[in-house]
Amino acid sequence: MRFAVSLLMLIPLLAAPALQAEDAPRPLDLTPPGGKNLYPELPELKTYQPLSAQDDIEVINLEYGVFQNRVTLEANATLPASDLEEQALSAQSYQEREPITETAFIPAKVGVKFGLRYKLAGPGARRPVNVKLLFLTPGLRNPQTGKHMDKIEISQELNPRSRYHVMAFQFAEAWEISPGAWHFYVFEGDRELIHKTFTVVK
To answer: Which of 40, 118, 134, 186 is the most exposed place for a label (fewest CB within 10 A)?
Structure first.
């Protein structure tokens, strides 16, 4: 199976030409029914663990939320069965700089892609950086294999020439949609570079 997070591996993405006005995707309407914000943002949703002063790598230009991707997935599409780790890799493969609608609350809909985009800076970022992407989910069960997963881990080498890096997940099939808290972590060795919490809501 694939996700465009069909679940992910971070690979360097190159900036793409700006979208023409007529091609620009329409942003998702993330306003809850009635126009009220039923999900007040929690403090931890706006923060990530900073690096200490002696570290030579820092995270800058952190963006998060729903990617306004131009790839359309059909809910009834038949995809080959595979591990979630393999599916995750495809979510990082887009070569287009997709617009992001900033939010920590994610619509529980097939085709929605959400996650992080960021850049590394500092002396240590001038060389390839090996990171681990960790996705903690509320719990997923593949109906084809019966396999349960509450976490996905992906190792990635980040290219220092990349203008930005991505960690994302895309709901390719209905069973991948699990309401509740999804935690996205980026580690360099034992150091936590980023921690972001998203809440998938119906």
So the answer is: 40
Residue type at 10 in one-letter notation: L
- How far, CA to CA in Å, does 186 sit from each of 32, 37, 183? 30, 29, 10
Cβ pair 69, 99 in contact under 8 A: no
Q: What is the pLDDT of residues 78-100, one digit of tens each?
A: 333 345 655 555 555 544 578 99
Phi, psi of 194 (to 5 degrees): -140, 140
Residues written for the chain: 202
Counting as low any pLDDT under 50, the low residues of the chain are: 1-24, 36-54, 72-82, 94-95
Q: How far apart are CA 162 and CA 127, in angstroms?
A: 11
CA nearest 70: which of 38, 114, 23, 104? Answer: 23
Give the whole-angstrom CA distance, residue 107 versus residue 115: 13
**Contact present, 188 and 26 (Cβ < 8 Å):** no
What is the C-alpha to C-alpha distance for residues 8 and 153, in angstroms, rounded to an integer? 9
Helices (H) and strands (E) counted in the chain, each on its own, are 1, 9
